[in-house]
Write a structure and sequence with these properties.
The complex is a heterodimer of chains A (336) and B (335). Chain A has 336 residues and is α/β, with parallel strands linked by helices. Chain A has two domains: 184 residues, Thiamin diphosphate (ThDP)-binding fold, Pyr/PP domains (Rossmann fold, 3-Layer(aba) Sandwich), CATH 3.40.50; 127 residues, Rossmann fold. In chain A, 35% of the residues lie in helices and 21% in strands. Chain A is built from twelve helices and 14 strands. Chain A has a seven-stranded mixed beta sheet, sandwiched between helices. A five-stranded mixed beta sheet of chain A has the order 9-11-10-13-14, with helices on both faces. Chain A starts with a strand and ends in a 13-residue tail after the last helix. The relative contact order of chain A is 0.12. Chain B starts with 9 loop residues before the first helix and ends in a 24-residue tail after the last helix. Helix content of chain B is 44%, strand content 9%. The relative contact order of chain B is 0.17. Chain B has 335 residues and is α/β, with parallel strands linked by helices. Chain B has a five-stranded parallel beta sheet with strand order 1-2-3-7-6, with helices on both faces. In chain B, α2 packs parallel to α3. In chain B, α6 links the parallel β2 and β3. The chains are: A alpha/beta (336), B alpha/beta (335). At the A-B interface, α3, α4 and α5 of A face α5 and α6 of B.
């Protein structure tokens, strides 16, 4: 049965059900047990499952991820939490040099059912060290899988897939979306890793986004519909592995594509997607692949600056108009 | 029979001796092959430190896990590793432990509960603590043992992991192999303390300093540490003062500026294998001829390992992209 749940509660419900199902699953991280996680993602789990399975750790991101790796190699199914995606950088050796590579270095003689959960994205005036979108770095490392869901339904389903996966996965919640509501089935279900979804079919231009920007892209599409522009919107959901087939198929149909992310444009996933689209759909394109992303600066604190920094439905709509050579009503600077 | 000089049984003494010899002969052979350009990449030889891996391993149960370092051949040999698969891995052959994908710095044998060598100094320490967590989680009395050098106690991961193990009271034995050099920098130039074990106190962890050139002493200290850990007392720190006869990387030793020839010779004069063989003869555990027979038998094992490795094929290029991910389907509940 399906009912409406918030993004936060969809995650929380998924954790409860997964832990009830499998005694090998435990959660470790800073303030995950007593406080229930920095944004409340893990509330109630300590009472339900006890402090053997809900473990508050020291502020030691390398040791937190290492704890997960070692426990996973030893046969458990750990969920370790990094409060903010920025802290991925603090634990990057354990993530990129250890978790991602162990299986390969060991010639396949290891299974690593490790899930790292974290909270990414800007929009809360959390400034430059608590707002970043660092997925491009993670996607660059073979051996990791990275998911960035934008709806309560996808968050719960992808959480289940991540935790049940025998590879290291990183699940990035967007911290601006915790209150967003949507239909979520009561039972456990999986949203397969590596599968994008067309969230709005269209004919004129393909807009590819993920995480919070997937919602902003849909909002841009609604605005543009009033101008007679019919956008097809794709939510990648998983960014590694990348479902390039769905993107290319759409680009071949609409002949124009705009890639949107909250991370800085330079070296972002938009660059990878643009490259792959031109490799697979060059002859279909009627315009250069366009990219919307953040400018090349650290994330500012002041709402007056941050609101300009982060792409929005308006800046996405502007870029789409440029791609379609449509004059904009009151043209503003595109996110470039 | 218990030997008066060490309080160990003859069987234990022989076990220590044989494991040390197996490491020494394996490493000497690997070094020769490396110098002859028959082995690609880097090689960090364990020669000189055999008493540590052997002394610890003889005291362990089969279910105890070990985690190792870039200088890790000795640890796996001591835990019972297959010499042929090890040598083949060092040569990048498909018959190697990791099918040639890991090499010297990434050998593992999960069936022996050897959770892997590690190319990042200190990088294996948090992972070993994670294995210790799994033991406590399951409520068994298995101990996770982590080997690391003096140099790795200068990296943050070590301190995070040591603190976490102590804070969560995890069954982890920290074995510091203090060989006095971090690559080519003397310990005294990279830390302001003489005994690395002092660092354990900062985490509320009991510690002991032991002569790492004395296998029976390492064995006894490990037995004591394991009893403490298995009793649920949390982690324990063992500092073994030892020495690496060869360079950080490769073999060449004399004539290098970072340490004196006299210093190297002095440590070699305290060789753990020489010492145990002398005590075996003195205590009547074995006569010289029997010691010679043991040496011959171990050398034959190493020769067979080389033969296996040299005849093992190189990996098929089709293997390049396998094992990046596991594709196995999820099965519920393993414990």
């Amino acid at each position: 049965m399906t009912r409406e749940l918030s993004y936060l509660n969809a995650f929380n419900e998924g954790m409860h059900q997964l832990m009830a199902e499998d005694p090998d699953i435990f959660v470790a991280g800073e303030d995950v047990a007593g406080k229930g996680g920095v944004f409340g993602s893990f509330v109630g789990l300590l009472d339900k499952f006890g402090d053997n399975r809900m473990v508050d750790t020291p502020i030691s991101e390398q040791a937190i991820v290492g704890l997960g790796i070692g426990a996973a190699v030893a046969g458990l199914r750990p969920v370790v939490d990094l409060m903010f995606m920025d802290f991925v950088l603090v634990s990057m050796d354990q993530i990129a040099n250890q978790a991602a590579k162990l299986k390969y270095m060991f010639g396949g003689n290891a299974s690593l059912p490790l899930t790292i959960t974290t909270n990414g994205g800007a929009g809360l005036s959390a400034a430059a060290q608590h707002s970043q979108s660092l997925e491009a770095m993670l996607c660059h490392v073979p051996g990791l899988k990275v998911v960035m869901p934008s709806t309560p339904y996808d968050l719960k389903g992808l959480l289940v897939s991540c935790v049940r996966e025998d590879n290291p996965t990183i699940l990035v919640k967007h911290k601006k979306m915790f209150g967003v509501k949507g239909d979520v089935p009561e039972e456990l279900y999986e949203v397969p890793l590596g599968q994008a979804v067309v969230t709005r079919p269209g004919t004129d231009v393909t807009v590819v986004a993920y995480s919070y920007m997937a919602a902003e892209a849909l909002a841009a599409a609604e605005v543009l519909a009033d101008e007679g522009i019919n956008c097809e919107v794709i939510d990648l959901r998983t960014v590694q592995p990348l479902d390039i087939e769905t993107v290319v198929e759409s680009a071949r149909k609409t002949n124009r594509i705009v890639v949107v992310h909250e991370a800085v444009r330079f070296g972002g996933l938009g660059a990878e997607i643009a490259a792959q689209v031109q490799e697979h759909a060059f002859d279909y394109l009627d315009a250069p692949v366009a990219r919307v992303g953040a400018p090349f600066s650290p994330i500012p604190f002041s709402p007056a600056l941050e609101s300009v920094y982060v792409p929005s439905a308006a800046s996405i709509a502007d870029e789409i108009r440029i791609t379609l050579h449509r004059p904009a009503p009151g043209l503003t600077a595109a996110g470039s | 029979m218990t030997l008066s000089s060490t309080s160990l049984t003859a069987e234990t003494i022989k076990d220590l001796h044989e494991r040390m010899l197996r490491i020494r002969f394996f490493e000497e052979a690997a070094g020769r092959l490396f110098e002859a350009n028959k082995m690609p990449g880097f090689i960090h030889l364990y020669v000189g430190q055999e008493a540590v891996a052997s002394g610890v391993s003889v005291a362990l149960r089969d279910d105890d896990q070990i985690s190792s370092t870039h200088r890790g051949h000795g640890h796996l040999v001591a835990k019972g590793g297959d010499l042929g698969k090890m040598m083949a891995e060092l040569m990048g052959k498909s018959g190697g432990y990791c099918n040639g994908k890991g090499g010297s710095m990434h050998i593992c044998d999960l069936e022996l509960n050897m959770l892997g060598a590690n190319g990042i100094v200190g990088g294996g320490v948090p992972i070993a603590v994670g294995a210790g967590f799994a033991n406590k989680y399951r409520g068994n009395d298995t101990v996770s043992v982590v080997f690391f050098g003096d140099g790795s106690t200068n990296i943050g991961a070590f301190h995070e992991a040591a603190n976490m193990a102590a804070a969560l009271k995890l069954p982890v034995l920290f074995v510091c192999e203090n060989n006095e050099y971090a690559e080519y920098t003397a310990r005294a130039d990279s830390m302001a303390i003489k005994d690395v074990a002092e660092r354990a106190a900062a985490y509320g962890m009991p510690s002991k300093i032991v002569d790492g050139m004395d296998a029976p002493a390492v064995y006894n200290a490990t037995r004591h540490a394991l009893e403490t850990i298995r009793a649920g007392e949390g982690p324990y720190f063992l500092e073994c003062k030892t020495y690496r006869y060869y360079n950080h990387h490769g073999i060449q030793t004399l004539g290098m500026k970072y340490r004196s020839d006299d210093e190297v010779e002095e440590w070699k004069g305290r060789d753990a294998i020489d010492a145990i063989e002398a005590s075996m003869v003195a205590d009547g555990v074995a006569n010289e001829a029997e010691v010679g027979d043991i040496r011959t038998a171990v050398q034959a094992e190493v020769d067979a390992a080389i033969e296996f490795a040299e005849t093992s094929p190189m990996p098929d290029p089709a293997e390049l992209l396998t094992n990046v991910y596991t594709e196995a389907a999820y099965t519920e509940v393993s414990s």
